[in-house]
Design a protein that fits this description.
Elements lengths: L1 E3 L8 H14 L4 E5 L5 H5 L11 H5 L5 H4 L1 E2 L5 E4 L8 H4 L9 H6 L8 E5 L6 H9 L2 E7 L8 H14 L5 E8 L10 H10 L12 H8 L4 H4 L4 H28 L3
Parallel strand pairs: 1-5, 1-6, 2-4, 2-5, 6-7
Antiparallel strand pairs: 3-4
């Protein structure tokens, strides 16, 4: 269960959720996207008509519907979504007096874990109630970060929230990696921002970087992942590489865990 979060808008967070989930599905990994953003862009980006949705995350969090009833299929095999609509923004006020408010998402979606290989949680571009719930529910965190000046500004706020979540709500939360997005791959000049990121996160940076690709924007306009819009696009190749890297990462961790459990 992976939370994809950024305290800033425009980092490619939802774009990554949509296209990474599609790429995992193409690898025939059972994948679920849980849209935790009231804007519902991940829902729309996966081709779901929000007007035709019977239940959504808001209903699940309020206990009006079990999570499995709210999950809808997409145009891709192996890929489902638990959708979001705008009234999700009311959730913080609705649960203001609830003692376990930071853990409500984890409690409501727990039963889904056994049905999927990967669950991706898309979050709002803020560090508020819904993002806190997603971090509390997840085991791993991917942080999209733009390849540009000031990219590191504000990242400390997200890391501070991660520390709080680990201390108070979810000791198992780990950083899977920093994902560099909107990279100018044609530039041969050394990038001081890249050096700062490398110095700070060392081995926590994905080898795969996401290039600037106008086709990514075009595919979102058609409410579909880039892989369904243009399978040969640079962005498609990058997200397929990211999916492969992520699969290998967790395979290695699984093998390491098994070895530690059976040292003989």
């Amino acid at each position: 269960m992976i939370c994809i979060a950024s305290q800033k808008g425009g980092t490619g967070k939802t774009t990554t959720t949509v296209n990474l989930s599609a790429s995992l599905a193409l690898f025939e990994k059972r994948t679920l996207v849980i849209d935790c953003d009231p804007q519902g862009n991940a829902t729309t980006g996966l081709g779901i008509d929000k007007k035709k949705v019977q239940w959504d995350l808001y209903d699940v969090l309020l206990g009006k519907a079990p999570a499995e009833k709210a999950v809808v299929s997409t145009a891709m095999d192996y890929l489902n979504v638990l959708p979001a609509r705008f009234h999700l923004h009311q959730m913080e006020n609705r649960l203001a007096s609830t003692s376990y408010r930071e853990r409500i998402l984890r409690a409501r979606i727990h039963a889904l874990a056994a049905d999927y290989d990967f669950i991706l949680l898309d979050t709002p571009p803020s560090l508020g109630f819904l993002t806190l719930n997603a971090l509390t529910a997840a085991r791993w965190l991917i942080m999209p970060l733009q390849c540009q000046l000031y990219a590191l500004e504000g990242l400390g706020q997200l890391l501070a929230v991660v520390r709080k979540v680990r201390e108070e709500f979810n000791r198992e939360l780990k950083i899977a990696g920093v994902l560099l997005t909107m990279c100018e791959t044609k530039s041969a000049r050394p990038d001081p921002i890249m050096s700062q990121i490398s110095d700070r996160f060392q081995k926590k940076i994905f080898r795969t970087t996401i290039p600037r690709d106008s086709l990514i924007r075009d595919s979102s306009n058609f409410s579909k992942p880039l892989a369904l819009h243009d399978i040969l696009a640079r962005g498609t190749e990058a997200y397929m590489d990211l999916a492969d890297e992520l699969i290998r990462l967790f395979q290695n961790k699984s093998n390491l865990q098994k070895a530690n459990e059976n040292p003989g």
